[in-house]
Amino acid sequence: MFENKFVGMALVLPGVLFAALVFLLPVGYLLAEGFQSADGWSFSPYIEFFSSERNRTVFLRTLKLGAMVTVVSTIIGYAAAWSIVSLKPTSRGRLIGLVILPLMISPVARTYAWIVILGRTGIVNQALMTIGLSDEPIRFLFTETAVFIGLLQLFLPLMILSLSSAMENMPADAVAAARVLGANPLQVFWKVILPLTREGLVIGGTLVFTGSLTAFITPAILGGSKVLMLETLLYQRVTVANDIASASVIAMILIVMSFCANQLLKRVATARGAK
Amino acid sequence: MQRTVQLPSLSVTALSLCSLIALGSSAAQAADEKLVISVYGFAQDAFSEIVYKPFEEQCQCELVVETGNSVERLAKLEARKDDPEIDMAVMSTHDALSANRKGVTQAIDVSRLSNFDKLYDIAKDPLGDHLGIGYTFYATSIVYRSDKVSIDSWQDLFKDELKGRVAFPNVTTNQGPPALYMLGKAMGDDDASLEAPIKQVAEHRDDIVTFYERSSQVAQLMQQEEILAAPVGRFAWGAYTKMDMPLAWATPTEGQTGGMNVMVLTKGAKHEDLAYQFMDFWLSTGIQTQLAEALVDSPANAEVIVSDEVAGNLTYGAETVSSLKLMAPDVILDNRDQWLESWNDKVAQ
């Protein structure tokens, strides 16, 4: 693109320097804190972290909710994206606009809405009691269910957008060709759509999983301290105990979890594509 | 002109150089007339009108106000220990004790405070050695729906009518440990470890709707009829009085607990005289009265007189103040980490 490679390097240098100074350096410094012990560099803070049953419970809960949100948003996302790309361009644009709309609203407002919806006097409980499925209000708030619903609503648009974008780039006759060759709908998805949309799945899955792991407001509001997650535990360690070393350990665990999820999604998608 | 800033870190060398350049100039004179304070971000508009601007007019100096939470404030004071930029700060009693243990604050010479003798006794020396002066406090008790339940004891939070209809403060909040302490007292257990009340809360974990982080959350849950009772600080009572609901403030047989905020003087404060002037100004009857009438802070000055309506929204009067069962700051500070661990192990699993 550039005749002189130094011109390209010069153009990218300010951005790289900025990222290094304001992100990599402080984050690196923070994460290094997690490998410090009385004897110098060591993994003992991590061993100590996982030796606590409570920390293991919080870790597994975070992993479970992140995985559930990612899997469910993938299923709903594929269905929604397929519907969107099947429409005419005008209708497609309108639907994409509807998908983007929630992203323009603050996550705080979107999360607080669930307090009203899922509360004792909320529409869900009212509906259940009206149709006779329940005699008294069911408690949804401050449970894992509420956190799951909140996170799913928060990140589903990202999955739909990623998959819609990937599906729009699929060859128009790929699905038709598979059908002609006798593939049933499940085979069409597994052997044609999934391999062709793997980039979208990897990007969407990583965004959703990472977002679910690192979201703070939604678990804090809908789960509170009864549904403690890694990010709420991290917040506690910093703001209450002023324990930066423990917070660094949790931050590193979150980064590793996100990286592993990204690699796993890549492998799943690549494996499908290879067959 | 009052400013609110986040000052960048400067090297000692740069500061020294600047000071040398400024020596003998009129700028040095202006710098000497600057007071830097660190306070909570709460109600800053009211503080600006009632406290900051009038003080600037009185002292003919510049007031620089830094806001943030206690953790940020302590971290900043510690980071600038050798070259403090903050002259005075306000914080909870246990954070003030923590600051002193870290060597960032000094004892206050109360003879330099003309309003000192007007303070309630519990506000005069809450930390010992005059390491802090109380400027406001609040009661903590139980707010409840008087049409649905009655509350006569802290143990009533666990009675059958309230199963699944109670919120309790998280141990990480300022209300959490005192509420646990009162639960313990109601069980006949005064132990500072709070093991017994934490165990009791854990046993009733499923009967408690949530362990709240902010008082505003409780008001919302009460409004939605999600809960019928919760321990809260008196400073939040105003929000409940505005609700069209039959809400009452409990006076449990074991008494009410609460908390206190104190003023501290930074060790090596560059504008010590101004800091003393400012503290005295803030503790004066006139300023404490205005802050009380604006429902910003309950007065620590015993000479403050307010209407019954205002008093109803505050922790006000000698009788109320003397009845508060406050936890000792050293008890909070020395046990805080262990409480958090115990709570997370038993309650937050």
Automatic annotation (TrEMBL), chain A:
Domain ABC transmembrane type-1 per the UniProt entry, residue ranges: 59-265
SUPFAM superfamilies: MetI-like
Database matches in Pfam families: BPD_transp_1
Keyword Cell wall biogenesis/degradation among record annotations: no
Locations listed in the record: Cell membrane
Recorded coiled-coil stretches: none
GO terms under cellular component: plasma membrane
Keyword entries, A-Z: Cell membrane, Membrane, Transmembrane, Transmembrane helix, Transport
Residues that span the membrane, as ranges: 65-85, 97-118, 138-161, 201-224, 244-265
Top-rank taxon: Bacteria
Membrane topology, from the record: Multi-pass membrane protein
Xref: Gene3D superfamilies: MetI-like
InterPro entries: MetI-like, MetI-like_sf
Xref: PROSITE patterns: ABC_TM1
BP terms from Gene Ontology: transmembrane transport
Family statement drawn from the similarity comment of this UniProt entry: Belongs to the binding-protein-dependent transport system permease family. CysTW subfamily.
Entries under PANTHER family matching the protein: INNER MEMBRANE ABC TRANSPORTER PERMEASE PROTEIN YDCU-RELATED, INNER MEMBRANE ABC TRANSPORTER PERMEASE PROTEIN YDCU-RELATED-RELATED
Identification of the protein by name: Putrescine transport system permease protein PotH
Gene name of the record: potH_3
